[in-house]
């Protein structure tokens, strides 16, 4: 089931320890809000009479819990970490309606906890993953001869202009397009393309292949060809819990963030539990998936630049230790983030730069922020530094960056500076952020030529690189 879409599920709902007390209700799922469950009664029994005070005493017992459901079609549903947001009762105190919220749910099974180690055969689809594979499935259209078309590619006197053509497509599943591993799990990227249905019937009557691929609408028939990609995750300690599944997905989401310089969401997540039940997990992520939106056309690097296994090894190295994992995750989380204020932007990117250098790059303990910024910049190859053009203003840049950090973190720096325009603070923050991001790409092993190309053509990176020139407009300290 698509976690990025919207779903409405009618059914009966109950607590795991009270299966006989089933309450009718409607579950609404949206990627933006998560699961909203409206019950026509209370989970402790329809018509149970309670005073408002007694009803309130039940709340701590049922908050943050698990709720089971069964749809009209008999499919099992589980809500985890559910919270009762509100309820309505009549004058006698009987619960008439309850409203619950859950950040995630399981479709296809009843599982008591998101920490139950019962999932295996994990698969997940992430936005833009296909564009890292380089697995070309479509070829350029070619002109063909077709029976009944006497004058192809020739305009006739009555305006007829027919162009019979074919699009060569490599359909079907390709496994292990890219593979890699961490100490926790093995990863494999698979791609799949539209293909005709294969059966004795379609082989005997080839026209059935076309019928099965054709969608008929009032405006006319259409055929949709698509290619997608997803990842198979095979944990070393299988089976695992749903919460562990989310943890093991993190490297993939980080890979897409770094490779596109944008956040990528999750389209769907599936698994098979130890009882053989196929389940879908729907989770409320900070950035919902949008598989139907236009793709990121400017990919900074793909698997031909950095293999999946090389990236995963770098991912583990950058997160070697609890502080390093925190700093690494902060750096990745900054990709695609839109701050509300310029002060927020300054504080976050300077903290990211300092933490990434100290913990992820092993930059040392007794090092000033100024020296950390200089080292991040000097790590970059000559060609990239020339494109940023910070060399002449490097000392001014780090001086202003340190002042901006102190000014924001301490509610005003000890030595006041006049800033003509708050845009100048944004220039400082943007320049620190792009240097930190490029240093991360350098450590991951992205080729210099790919980074230089991105600085010229990637719409967001190009803007940040050009903005570095505005540092010259800042007054001398």
Describe the fold and architecture:
The protein has 477 residues and is of the alpha+beta class. It has helices at 52-62, 200-204, 207-213, 242-260, 308-318, 322-334, 342-360, 369-378, 382-388, 394-409, 423-444, 448-457, 459-467; strands spanning 7-14, 23-30, 34-39, 65-71, 76-89, 95-102, 104-107, 119-126, 142-143, 165-166, 172-181, 185-193, 214-217, 220-223, 227-235, 266-273, 278-283. Helix 7 (342-360) packs across helix 10 (394-409) and helix 7 (342-360) packs parallel to helix 11 (423-444). The longest helix is centred in the last third of the chain and has 22 residues, at 423-444. The radius of gyration is 28 Å and the shape is globular. The N and C termini lie far apart (57 Å).
- Label the structural class: alpha+beta
Which percent bin holds the helix content?
A: 25-40%
The Cα radius of gyration reads: 28 Å
Helical segment count: 13
Low-confidence blocks of residues: 45-51, 57-63
How do the SSEs run, as a string of H and E?
Answer: EEEHEEEEEEEEEHHEEEHEEHHHHHHHHH
Give the tags.
single chain; 477 residues; alpha+beta; 6-stranded antiparallel β-barrel; two-stranded antiparallel sheet; 13 helices
Secondary structure layout plus pairing:
Layout: E1 7-14, E2 23-30, E3 34-39, H1 52-62, E4 65-71, E5 76-89, E6 95-102, E7 104-107, E8 119-126, E9 142-143, E10 165-166, E11 172-181, E12 185-193, H2 200-204, H3 207-213, E13 214-217, E14 220-223, E15 227-235, H4 242-260, E16 266-273, E17 278-283, H5 308-318, H6 322-334, H7 342-360, H8 369-378, H9 382-388, H10 394-409, H11 423-444, H12 448-457, H13 459-467
Antiparallel strand pairs: 1-2, 1-4, 2-3, 3-6, 4-5, 5-6, 5-7, 7-17, 8-15, 8-16, 9-10, 11-12, 12-15, 13-14, 16-17
Helix pairs in contact: 6-7, 7-8, 7-10, 7-11, 8-10, 10-11, 11-13, 12-13
